[in-house]
Write a structure and sequence with these properties.
- Strand 1 and strand 2 form a beta hairpin.
- Strands 1-2 form a two-stranded antiparallel sheet.
- It has one domain.
- The chain has 6 helices and 2 strands, in the order H-H-E-E-H-H-H-H.
- Helix 3 runs parallel beside helix 5.
Length: about 160
């Protein structure tokens, strides 16, 4: 993996997201998708962008010039990294999920919007599956049929 050495934030220049995130977000797989996305972002030490602990720096900083201020170079670096994380998140969404994040400019806002929209659906689905699995009984079914039915429920 190549990273920019002049960057304040680790910026992977060559990274195939599909190698890390095998799922596209749907209304039923948020928890599984979330694990993969968080693992990728966390492995690059960039989790603060979506938790809100790494916020955009101020746009101008003091300097010794005549007007006493200059553009903050950290803002461009932050913006570049933020866009990258936002891209990782949005490229792993199906069209239905993309509609949730249209117009959002930060990876933090995109992450919050997707979490709010899909985590409840996933939790309800998880609860439904747990109930179905608890109801499963082998009874008189042959073991192979029981296992096949069990797997179908899990899938």
């Amino acid at each position: 993996m190549t990273t920019s050495t002049s960057s304040k934030y680790a910026y992977p220049a060559n990274l195939n997201v599909a190698n890390f995130i095998s799922l596209k977000l749907t209304s039923t797989n948020f928890l599984l998708w979330e694990i993969q996305v968080l693992s990728l972002i966390e492995s690059r030490d960039l989790l603060g962008f979506i938790t809100g602990t790494i916020l955009a720096p101020i746009s101008e900083i003091p300097n010794a010039t005549e007007d006493g201020i200059m553009p903050n170079p950290d803002l461009a670096t932050w913006t570049r990294t933020n866009r990258l994380i936002k891209e990782w998140i949005t490229t792993t969404n199906f069209k239905e999920a993309l509609g949730t994040v249209v117009g959002l400019t930060t990876s933090l806002n995109v992450w919050k919007a997707l979490s709010n929209a899909y985590s409840q659906d996933s939790q309800a689905r998880e609860f439904e599956l747990l109930l179905k699995l608890k109801e499963k009984k082998k009874d008189t079914l042959p073991l192979t049929d029981f296992i096949r039915n069990f797997k179908l429920t899990c899938d």
